[in-house]
Design goal:
Elements lengths: L1 H6 L9 E2 L2 E2 L1 H19 L4 H8 L3 H11 L3
Antiparallel strand pairs: 1-2
Length: 71
């Protein structure tokens, strides 16, 4: 569990509740953003290499980067 807390710094999950119901879509998006950011950091920003390591196309990676505000 320390991997999750260190790689994805959520202090608590309060931001993932809407009207008392857990919003798994918001958590999933935060998790995906964290994975993308970590992978890009590990490959020094090389988008082609990050896409290859993630098993997705480069265009898909670029779309997700835009969606999550990653550069």
């Amino acid at each position: 569990v320390s991997f999750v807390t260190s790689a994805y710094p959520f202090e608590n999950f309060n931001g993932f509740f809407d009207g008392g119901f857990f919003n798994h879509h918001r958590l999933e998006a935060a998790f995906e953003r964290g994975i993308l950011a970590r992978e890009l950091r590990e490959v020094g920003g090389n988008r082609s290499e990050a896409a290859r390591r993630l098993g997705i196309g480069r265009v898909t990676l670029l779309d997700k980067m835009k969606k999550y505000g990653l550069k």
